[in-house]
Write a structure and sequence with these properties.
The chain is mainly alpha-helical. The protein contains two helices and two strands.
Amino acid sequence: MAAAPKDRPRPLRDANGFGEAEGAVMVALFKAVMPATLLTWIVCLFIGSAGSGGGFLHIQPLLLADHRIFWSWPLFLAGTLLSWFIYTMLE
């Protein structure tokens, strides 16, 4: 009887069709949303409460359950990309 080799090559993709690299990138993107949300909320709080629109940031006042909050989609996307890059480089 021949012994099975101990160091078999690992498959490049798992059962769902994702490899290790794609999975790590998607996890980094998922983790990047929370710091981007926090960054956007804090920056928009200071700039929006002063009455400024933030220029390129395009800060908008939103009503959420009778509370006025400020939000900026360009800042959120920039924060997400920055956090995503940092988390990807850390892994």
